[in-house]
Amino acid sequence: MRRAARRIALLTLLLILAATSISCSEIESVLKESGATGDRNTRVSPGAAGKALKNLEVSPPGSMAGYDREDFPHWSDAREFGWDVSDGSCDVREAALIRDGEDVVVGEGCDFESGRWLDPYTTRTYTDPLDIDIDHLVPLANAYRSGASGWDEPLRERYANDPNNLLSVEDNANQEKGDKGPEAWKPPNRAIWCSYAKRWISVKSDYDLTVNPQEKAALKQMLATCKKG
């Protein structure tokens, strides 16, 4: 009887922990938004995202001394980093364009023949893939000054090619954003502030990156735009 009671108590405790904890897999769960916007949105609740944000370490931005973008190898082999592509010759940039586009036709050697891309930052649509940049949602330089300065190259390469941290956007919007965090730049399209903040928190949670006080306040502001329910 005692053994059975202990088992029941342990099972109850595990169920409570499962219901209240914020797991990486929950934060990382992403799906394309309806309406084929090309954006991706976490299906985690605003409350859960807020709890995950509270769990992030708050620290002033670190030094950029020694930073070199080329120390984060990017546009690597797509399949190696978990991208779903039918052509083994596709790199990560090409895989992102395929994932985020509509009616995309790719020829031999992952050469783009046609397609449409709706930029989630500006809501404008483009048909030339050369007009599209692949944005690191949490920029490489931002990651560097919030913890990635101490990473080895394999981890930096994984980060630079992670599907959850990449988004196809209009090139001018991407250049305007640069390496800014949400405290200094937010998407002009306010409709995606909620999903943008959730995904930013997801990336920082997954890679144990810090947030600065102004960044945390901006993310809270963006989460406040999430629809209830």
Structure description:
- There is one protein chain.
- The chain is α+β, with helices and mostly antiparallel strands and 229 residues long.
- The chain has one domain.
- Helices cover 38% and strands 14% of the residues.
- It contains nine helices and seven strands.
- The chain has helices at 2-20, 24-28, 46-55, 92-100, 140-144, 153-160, 171-177, 193-206, 213-223, and strands at 30-32, 40-42, 102-107, 111-118, 125-126, 132-136, 166-170.
- The protein has a three-stranded antiparallel sheet, with helices on one face. A two-stranded antiparallel ribbon has the order 1-2. Strands 6-7 form a two-stranded antiparallel ribbon.
- It is globular.
- The chain starts with a helix and ends in a 6-residue tail after the last helix.
Unreliable spans: 1-42
Discrete helix count? 9
- Total domain modules: 1
Helix coverage percent of residues? 25-40%
List keywords for this structure.
alpha+beta, globular, 229 residues, single chain, disordered N terminus
